[in-house]
Specification:
β2, α1 and β3 form a beta-alpha-beta unit. The protein has a single domain, classed as GMP Synthetase, Chain A, domain 3. It has a three-stranded mixed β-sheet with strand order 1-2-3, with helices on one face. The chain is built from two helices and three strands; from the N terminus they run ββαβα. By secondary structure, it is α+β, with helices and mostly antiparallel strands.
Length: about 80
């Protein structure tokens, strides 16, 4: 299961300035107290940086709106046996 199908990624945008491309991601976690937050965000940033043509990546953890199970994609729900 990936963070997109879990509904954890709220926004993803490519910003261009001075000929450089930066990916800006806003994501959340299933619970604010999750100690894996910094690890998951760093992993997402590292994966984004492997994309050709991307010069930088910023991953910001946000808590609004609060995550809930309805944010899981249909594919994610199928993988989790929810439907």
């Amino acid at each position: 299961m990936d963070i997109v199908n879990l509904g954890l990624v709220y926004d993803c945008a490519i910003e261009e300035a001075d000929g450089k491309k930066t990916v800006a991601v806003k994501m959340t976690l299933t619970a604010p107290g999750c100690g894996m937050g910094p690890v998951i965000a760093a992993d997402a940033q590292a994966k984004i940086m492997t994309i050709d043509g991307i010069d930088d990546a910023r991953v910001e953890l946000v808590w609004d709106p609060a995550w809930n199970q309805e944010m899981i994609s249909e594919e994610g729900k199928m993988k989790l046996g929810m439907i």
